[in-house]
Design brief:
Blueprint (H helix, E strand, L loop, with lengths): L1 H12 L1 H5 L3 H35 L12 H22 L4 H20 L1 H4 L15 H8 L6 H24 L11 H6 L5 H45 L2 H8 L10 E13 L2 H7 L2 H21 L3 E6 L2 E6 L8 H25 L7 E17 L2 E7 L1 H8 L1 H7 L3 E4 H9 L7 E9 L6 E8 L1
Helix pairs in contact: 3-4, 3-10, 4-5, 5-8, 7-8, 7-10, 8-10, 10-11, 13-14, 14-17
């Protein structure tokens, strides 16, 4: 019987979907539900305050000598329970049984409050069946929808329906209640008579509203699961792509197809770890990968700080772009500022390694600016965003000149002048080399050499 109920529950409530999700996605959903429990608890606090205020301000129509006025006691009990629930919501994950108990307690206290009216106002039990306070049932049922679990909505609706049937049964069987039953609607509305059809209509309304709300939650929960899964995937994606590329992929209004690109002006930056090829052949694999991770962890934040986008890691090289993924009006200035800060970070990293008894490392930086094409290449099964154009080729070729000049960085004179026009002011020592021949590039290029 238990197995059958579990299967039905999974089929109706969509829990089978949750089971297929990675643990990290389920954890994200659990965090969302914990936040919902906090919100529910605060709404209940608001309800307690509202009920208490209304009770305190409203004129009391019952006799002053009434010995038992249960409303304050009911509100006090509900208030204490709500405070406990709020504490548990903040300081720990509430177990399912406590949440279920909370749902039943909500309805039990509400039904007790309604039941108390006939004692408080010294009327027959049928008196409380006309209390408009029953409408608060729908508030408590809707409150459970905040958690996006249909189970608790169904439990709230079932508790409300059963509670009202119990109150109806009490009114019918206590103090000659059977004599209060009528089939005359006018007599029902003008007296304390009981119209069973009207009471059953209330129960049917509670059940129908509960079922509709539960169905809505099932559909909304599936959307929540898909949304959380996509958000988690986007977060994972940003670890493999730069944040700008990940944002383009996740927020693209249309399906990304290979062969689509855009032309724009951008700066290309290439970082190269000197002597890495030889070192990788001499050192253990783990040490080589550890060195790469250490190097990249020092360089990448500096690039991103200045608005750069990591295009790809080329072994020990880092290819970054400025103004390609996200067009800007100061891409050249950002690139050269990044080069200066990267040079400082490289020196600091080398000193840190020496202090740890490791070999110092040298990193060189080259850049170029110009027209590029930025877009997706590959096929439908494997896509990659990349940049294509003369600045990409030129930046790759300039690495040799950085080695020859023993410079921390090399760029072109055109890039330097454009950067200055965009607000860049050099803090490093610069030397101009005019008319340099660059392998694979037609003509000559004027170079700007960065010195430490």
């Amino acid at each position: 019987m238990t197995g059958m109920w579990t299967s039905i529950k999974k089929a109706i409530l969509g829990e089978a979907i949750d089971g297929k999700l990675p643990a990290r996605v389920q954890d994200a959903i659990t965090r969302q539900q914990s936040q919902s429990e906090i919100l529910i608890a605060w709404v209940q606090v608001f309800i307690v305050i509202t009920f208490s205020t209304l009770y305190a301000l409203s004129p009391k129509t019952f006799a002053a000598d009434v010995m038992f006025a249960p409303v304050p006691y009911a509100l006090m009990i509900y208030g204490l329970f709500t405070a406990l629930r709020l504490l548990l919501a903040y300081f720990g994950r509430m177990p399912w049984w406590f949440i279920s108990l909370s749902v039943i307690a909500d309805m039990a206290l509400l039904m007790f409050l309604i039941w108390s009216f006939h004692i408080q106002y010294e009327q027959p039990p049928s008196f409380y069946l006309k209390a408009p306070t029953l409408l608060y049932v729908f508030i408590f049922i809707a409150l459970r929808a905040l958690r996006f679990e249909a189970t608790y909505v169904l439990l709230a609706g079932a508790s409300a329906a059963i509670g009202w049937l119990i109150l109806l049964g009490y009114a019918v069987h206590i103090d000659g209640g059977m004599a209060q039953i009528t089939r005359d609607y006018v007599e029902f509305t003008m007296s304390h008579k009981i119209l069973l059809g009207a009471e059953f209509d209330k129960v049917i309304s509670i059940i129908v509203v509960t079922l509709i709300l539960a169905l809505v939650i099932v559909r909304a929960r599936r959307l929540l699961i898909h949304s959380v899964a996509q958000a988690t995937a986007a977060e994972d994606l940003s670890r493999f792509f730069s944040p700008e590329i990940a944002a383009q992929i996740t927020h693209s209004e249309s399906w990304i197809e290979p062969g689509t690109g855009e032309s724009r002006q951008a700066a290309i930056l290439h970082c190269d770890l000197q002597g890495f090829t030889k070192l990788s052949m001499e050192r253990p694999a783990n040490e080589v990968i550890s060195l790469l991770a250490e190097y990249q962890s020092r360089m990448v934040p500096v690039i991103q700080k200045h608005g750069g986008t990591i295009d790809k890691f080329l072994g020990d090289g880092i290819l970054a772009t400025f103004g390609a993924a996200v067009p800007t009006e100061h891409y050249a200035a950002d690139c050269l500022r990044a080069m200066e800060d990267l040079s400082k970070e490289s020196v600091a990293w080398s000193k840190d390694r020496e202090a740890d008894g490791k070999d110092p490392m040298t990193v060189r930086f080259v850049s170029a600016v110009g027209a590029i094409v930025f877009g997706a290449v590959g096929d439908s099964s494997r896509l990659e965003y990349t940049v294509i154009g003369e600045p990409v080729n030129l930046a790759a070729k300039l690495d040799k000149h950085a080695k020859d000049e023993q410079a921390t960085g090399v760029t072109t004179r055109d890039a330097l002048e454009l950067a200055r026009a965009q607000g860049y002011t050099s803090k490093a020592s610069l030397e101009i080399r005019e008319g340099r021949a660059v392998d694979g590039i037609k003509g000559t290029v004027d170079l700007a050499i960065f010195r430490p």
